[in-house]
Amino acid sequence: MQYLGYETQSIPVEINKSGKNELSDIELNPMDYKLGEVNVTGEANPVEFRIDKQVINVSKQLSAQGGTAADALQHSAAVQVDAEGNVSLRGSGDFLLLIDGRPSVLDASTVLTTMQSDAIDQIEIITNPSAKYTAEGNTGIINIITKSKSFESTSGMVNAMVATGEKYAVSAQMQSGLGKFNVYGGVNASSRLKINEDDIKRYDDNDPNFLESYASEREVSKESYDANVGVDAKLNESNMLKLDFQSGSWKYSRFVTSTFQSTNLANSVNATDDFADENFFYKPGLNYVNQFDKDHKLTLDAQMSFVENKIPVIYTELDPFYRRDNTNKVDKMQSDVRLDYELPISEKMKFESGLAYHGFNGANHITYQTQTGLGSDWVVDDNLSNNYDFLTDNMAGYAIFNTVVNAYKLQLGIRAELNQRRFAGLTDDYQKEKVDWFPSLHISRNLTKSQKVGLSYSRRVNRPTEWQLYPAVWAADRLNLVQGNPDLKDEFNHSLEFSYSYLSKKLRMNTQLYYQLISDQISSYVLYDGTDFINTYENLSDGSSSGIDAMVSYNAMQWLSLSLSASGYHNDWSGKTRDDVKLKGSTYGAMSNFRTTFKYKKSTVFQFMAIYYAPQNTPQGDIDAFYYFDFILKQYFLDRKLSLMLRTHNTFDTGVMKYKVRNDQYLTNGNYVYEGPTVMFSVSYKFNNYKKKQEREGFKSDFDTGLDH
Fold it and tell me: pTM here?
C-alpha cells in the first residue's frame, strides 16, 4: 500500500473463493522528510498598502532596529513624529492605539516612544476602519502586532542598543512549542534621554516697549521596564485558548531649566520645572477561539489593566525663592471585553457581528501646595487640591455584511455605541450619556493582476479626554497655565477615502486620497484673561480636512533601491471661542521621507534617509519648514543570525522648528531645537528564531527563510 508522503505498508491478504475481500481501515504512517536549508532571496516590502490599511513590516525598517515603535512609524507618509516623540496621524493626535487588537491603558505617545521595535512584527495603520472597530479616533487606528509564536519550535531573540546622550535598551524574547501548548515570555528595559532647547519671545502690538522672553533647556527622559509571559493551548481541533500576563513600569520625566525676562520685571527669573509621569502596571488577558469550520468562528477576547500612576510637578524659582508642588496620584482600572462572530453564508457572502465593552475608572488625588522661602513650611491650596473620580463606560454592538458582486468586493457595516462618562467628587459633578450610530462602507476591485482600487466611507468620533474636560488648572509655568473645558462636545467626522495601488517586479506605487468633514472640532487654544495666558480647549464650529498619502519604491538594481513617501493635506476651520474671538482660516501642510538603500552581497546594507516637513498654518499662528538627515549601516554575520547596526540621527543638526502664536494683541515667536547629532549602535542575535517545524499533509521539514525577521 503506497501513498505520497506516507510510509509503504505490506499487508498479507488471503483471497477467498468469490475473489472479493472486505478489508478494515488501514492506517498509514507519515514519512519524515528532512529538507536542507532553503535560502529565499526575495525581500518583503517594508511598507505594504492594502485596500483598507497600510502595513509596516517593522523588521524591514533599518532605522527601527534598536529603536521604538515611533521610529518604525516614521516610514509611513501618514504619520508624523515630533522632537518630543508626540505622534500624529494625518496631522492629528486624535487616533486610537491598539496592541494586538486591544486598547492601551497608557498614553499613546508614551507607548509608541518606549515600546521596543524588536518585539514588533507589523504595525497596521487603518485610516478608515470598518464598523467592527471602536468608533474612537477621528483619523484612524494604529494597531501594533507583536511577533507570533510557533507550536513546533523553540526560538528566541536578544537585542541591545546604546546611543550618545544616555540612551540604552535591552530586550530578550523566547518561546517554546510543546505539542498542543506554546509557552512564551520576554523582558524589556530601555532608558532614553533627549535634550532639546526652546526659545520663546512674546510681543504686544499695543505697546512697542513690551517684551517677554523665555529660554529653556529640556532634558526629556523615557524609561520602560516590563516582563510578559503567556501560554497558547490547542484544546482540540476546533478550540484555542490563550492566557497572557504583563507587568512593568513606564516613566516619562522632563526637567526644564529656564530664564524668564520681562519689561514688567526688574530682574530676570531663573527657574526649574521638574515633571514626571510614573506608572506601574499589570494586565492579565484571555483569548478564546472556537473554530466551527474554515470561516465559521466565535472569538472572545478580554483584558484587565491596573495602573498606579503618580504625576509630581515641582516648579521652583531661585531668586526670590518660590516653589510649587502639584502632585496627582491616580489608581486606574480599565476593562475591555470583545465577542466577535463570523458566519459564511455562501462562497461569496459572509456575515459578521459582535459586542464590545470598554470601562475606565480613575481615582485622582491632587495636592497643590506652595513654599515661599527655602526651608519654610508648605502651604496647601485647598481651592486647587482635590479628590475626584473620572469614569467612562462604552457599550457597543456591530453587524457587517460582506459580499462579491461581479468583480467588486463590498462590505456594509453599522455600529451602535452607548457612551457614559462623568466626574464624581467635583463641586459641580459632570455627567454625560449618549447613543451614537456609526455606518461604514468599503468597496474594492482588482483592475488587473497588478492594479487595485478601493473606496471607503466611515463615521467616527473624538470624545474629549479627562484632562481636556477637567475644569481646574492642572499645570503651569511662567508663561502659561493649562486648564480643561467641561463644556466640550464630542467631535464627529465623516471620512471618505479612495485608494489605488500598482505592483510590478521593480516598481511599487500606492496612493490614498481622503476627505473628512468635521463638526464641533476640538482644538487647543490660548486664552488671555487679563492676567495669565491659559492653554485650554475649544470646539470650533466646523472644519474639513483633505489630503493625499503616497509611496513610490523602485528597485533600480539588485543592489540599489529608492523609496519616497510623502503626504500633503489641507485643513480649514471656523468658529468662536469662549472669549468671543472669531477663528477662521486654513492651512496646507506636507512632509516627505526619501530613502536610498545600497546592498553589498547579502550581508551589508547602507541607507541614506532625508526627512522634510513643509511650512504650515495653525488656528493661531504658523510653523516654518524644517528637515534633517539620517545615515544607517547594517552588517550581518553568522548566516544573518547576528546583525550589527550603526546609525546617525539628525546628522547635520538641522532640526530646528520655528513657530508663531498670535492671540489678540500678543505675538509669540518660538524656536524648538531637535536633539542632534545622535549616534546609535545596536546588536541583535536570533537563535532558531524562524526555523519553524512545519507539518503539512504528512510532510515535516525545518524551514529557514534566511530573511531578516
Answer: 0.79
